[in-house]
Amino acid sequence: MAAPLRPRPAPAIELLPKIIMGVDPGTQIMGYALIEVRGQRVDVLCYDVINMKALGSNHAVKLKRIFDRMLELIDEYLPDELAIEAPFFGVNVQSMLKLGRAQGVAIAAALSRQIPYVEYAPTKVKQAVTGSGAATKEQVAHMLRQTLTLPPIAEASKFLDATDALSVALCHHYQKGNNVQAGSKSWGKFLADNPGRLNATTTTKKAATKKSA
Which annotated residues bind Mg(2+) 2 (predicted)? Predict the structure, then answer.
């Protein structure tokens, strides 16, 4: 009589793939990116933009477009966490308000699918990816080309908006302590130093079957 088969042990939680969605908010063009992290390995699933230039000046229509597209991406890629860049504090108050609404709508779409989010200052993202908080968009994109294998993108004109979103996702990955060369601060140290920066804590890891369904 054959011996009964023993069930295989569940994979260690740190070896399970994690999908991070990065978003660079915008009222005309919003960049987004999705990466899959497994241990030290990072794979770029996609990076692109939501282009709203053809939608005219109706801000409400643009916000709906952001919400709808975010839900489409979330339902397609099933991200575990959202990393989103905080609005840059400029001199134009009206632009800041519109940008804040766009960011809020993107966050609301994630929360509607019970996905936790973390907000990062632009200088924090640049520092994590390039080592300099004053890096340009071009320098960020160059560093990403050196660090990751990037799939092709259709239009060069939107490349920098997409790579900005990719840098936000990668920054979030680095802040978990998975790349000591990106900075000495661990995720726990970051929270201790910046208690007000985290707007929603991460929840329990989704079941592994979600990724294989």
Answer: 85
Token couple for 43: 């794979």
Among 24, 48, 80, 119, the active-site one is: 24
Are 25 and 69 within 8 A, CB to CB?
Answer: no
The active-site residue out of 48, 80, 81, 85 is 85
Task: For residue 164, indicate whether it is catalytic.
Answer: no
Annotated binding site for Mg(2+): 24, 85, 161
Q: Which of 133, 114, 112 is nearest to 124 (CA)?
A: 133
DSSP structure string for 3-14: PPPPPPPPPPGG
The H or E element spanning position 86 is: none
What domains can you pick out in the chain, each with its CATH number? 18-176 (3.30.420.10)
How far is it, in rounded angstroms, from Cα 83 to Cα 122? 12
SS3 category, 48: strand
Predicted confidence (pLDDT) at residue 26 exceeds the cutoff of 70: yes
- pTM value is 0.74
Whether residue 24 lies in the annotated active site: yes
Q: Token pair for residue 79?
A: 């991200």
**Which tens digits make up the pLDDT trace of 123-134?**
999 999 999 988
85 is catalytic: yes
In one letter, which amino acid is 127?
Answer: Q
- The binding site comprises 24, 85, 161
Token output for 39: 């241990």
